[in-house]
Amino acid sequence: MDRGDLFIISAPSGAGKSTLCSMLVKELDNIVFSVSHTTRPPRPGEVDGKDYFFVSEAEFQRLVAEDAFLEWARVHGNFYGTHRGQVMDKLAKGLDVILDIDTQGAKQVKEKLPGAVTIFILPPSWQELKRRLVARGSEDREKIKLRLKNALLEMEEVPNYHYTIVNDQLQVAFEELKSIIIAERNKTRRVIGGKIDLAALKPDPEEWDSI
Ligand code: ADP
Ligand code: 5GP
Fold first, then answer.
1. Which one of 100, 143, 158 would you pick to mutate in the ligand 2 pocket, going by the greatest count of ligand atoms within 8 A of its CB?
2. Which residue, by CA, sits nearest to atom 21 of ligand 2?
3. Does the beta carbon of 102 lie inside 6 Å of ligand 2?
4. What is the CA angle 185-160-71, rounded to 5?
5. Angle at CA 15, nearest 5°, toward 10 and 18?
6. Which CATH fold topology does 6-191 show?
7. Are 110 and 8 contacting, i.e. CB atoms less than 8 angstroms apart?
8. Would the pTM of this model clear 0.85, i.e. be above it?
9. Distance CA 202, CA 208 (A)
10. pLDDT, tens digit (0-9, with 9 covering 90-100), for 14-66
11. Rounded to whole angstroms, how far apart are CA atoms 101 and 184?
């Protein structure tokens, strides 16, 4: 069976990557979201095991010591990490996997898995990024300030990503994101030996006579 592809999606907080990722896994088959571990407290409505595995700092450090993470980083004052086993199992099963991770984590994964496809989501403007973060209402003023400050650093990494999407109109950004996944799935390497066997496209010798 062909291995799946790994898609890394990064964006400043509030740019809309969680919204876009959840639209993607709803619409496309054979693509799954990697559920990260975090020490951040859950937001109202977030479900343990679906949005994140919410763990204590001690549990997170235990997993770090066990080398359980493909990558991990401290982001906006909390720890976040991608469980290696979870991701590798899914890729081996032929599923495409999306990692919604920050730019520090993206660098670590690219070193280990250079075939990963990287996508950066940008907001249409600074004012709109701020508006979305405030409107989401999930962080207090100080935390919003920290996330906006970090947004400036994260956006410096855009040139290192394969693709960039500006999330202005949600539906347009979604179509652009979907088209990247579909294009990657049609790379010759994945099609030949994956969904089609070139040898099977050749006729049997006796078939020539019937043409
Ligand atoms: P992130 O995961 O990047 O932090 P979210 O997906 O949580 O961002 O989006 C931040 C807020 O902006 C949410 O309230 C979401 O509903 C809203 N949002 C996302 N994309 C758009 C868009 N294109 N136009 C307007 N609001 C958006
Ligand atoms: P949030 O707290 O808004 O859910 O996420 C904050 C930031 O942490 C986002 O930039 C998100 O991409 C990043 N993040 C989420 N999971 C991981 C992870 O497993 N590893 C890393 N490095 N960053 C993550």
1. 100
2. 101
3. yes
4. 75
5. 65
6. Rossmann fold (3.40.50)
7. yes
8. yes
9. 10
10. 999 999 999 999 999 999 999 999 999 999 999 999 999 999 999 999 999 99
11. 20
